[in-house]
Design a protein that fits this description.
This protein is 43% helix and 13% strand. It is an alpha/beta fold.
Length: 261
């Protein structure tokens, strides 16, 4: 069952049609809200590897409802605790043990001793958007460039895909806003860096990836923004289900506009 269909079923009680998946589907899930996200992290160690906030813990519980009707077969997490804490309730629901893949950890912004200079980070984003993907945070030599981030993470994503591409079911990869969002344009051919930088993933946002007929990973859905993928067959939904999906798309669009404002 696809993610959008699962959301419709969960929210409306619709009976799900037969699953369209005949090969693995990969869900790249950003972790729930951490204390670094909320601004509450108080030490360099906590900034680098924060726990979840109370809201983040609730988001982790809510994620169970989003994923519970999927045929979840494998879970991967990064070496940072916020990914494991995010998927722990879901892993318990399915009786799965997450596999730690250290290479999919978040983009490095240094050792955290200087805190986070968001003006410098946004300036770095501007460099990336203009084509200078070798740029780092100004004055922070230990921070990673986009080139370095991609070189570290894409091989790990490819290894996960290769391990499960011929299986049925759904594989969840729980990572980070940068390790998923900024890297995805270099992993899936149908999204651009400009799109990724303009559509940052929210906490527990999901990017659904499927393989096309040539075996290439392609984004099928970016947290509610649908993409055409050659291997995706149409699934008939009752009229109420179609209306719900259209409504969800409109809500997502309104939220994006609100964030932009």
């Amino acid at each position: 069952m696809s993610l959008r269909l699962a959301l419709a079923v969960a929210l409306t009680g619709l009976v799900a049609p037969v699953s369209v998946a005949d090969a693995a589907t990969f869900l790249f899930i950003r972790h729930a809200e951490s204390t670094t996200n909320s601004g509450a992290a108080s030490t360099p160690e906590e900034i680098l590897d924060p726990p979840l906030t109370a809201l983040g813990q609730q988001q982790a519980q809510d994620l169970v409802g989003v994923l519970k009707d999927l045929d979840l077969t494998h879970i991967y997490v990064s070496s940072y605790q916020r990914t494991a804490l995010t998927i722990a309730p879901t892993a318990a629901e399915f009786g799965l043990t997450p596999v730690v893949e250290p290479e999919i950890r978040e983009w490095s912004f240094g050792d955290g001793s200087a805190g986070l200079d968001y003006n410098a980070i946004y300036a770095m984003f501007g460099e990336w958007a203009s084509g200078n993907t070798a740029a780092r945070i100004a004055g922070v030599d230990a921070s990673e460039s986009l080139d370095e981030l991609v070189a570290r993470i894409v091989p790990a994503y490819r290894a996960i895909i290769d391990a499960h591409k011929d299986e049925d079911g759904v594989v969840a990869i729980v990572g980070h806003g940068g390790s998923i969002g900024w890297v995805m344009p270099y992993f899936a051919e149908n999204v651009t860096l400009g799109f990724a930088l303009s559509n940052n993933l929210r906490n527990t946002g999901i990017v659904e990836v499927r393989l096309d007929s040539a075996g290439r990973p392609m984004v099928a859905d970016w947290d509610g923004i649908a993409f055409e993928v050659e291997t995706l067959a149409p699934v008939p939904l009752p009229a109420s289900g179609l209306m719900l999906l259209a409504g969800l798309g409109g809500i997502a669009a309104l939220r994006r506009r609100a964030r932009a404002a």
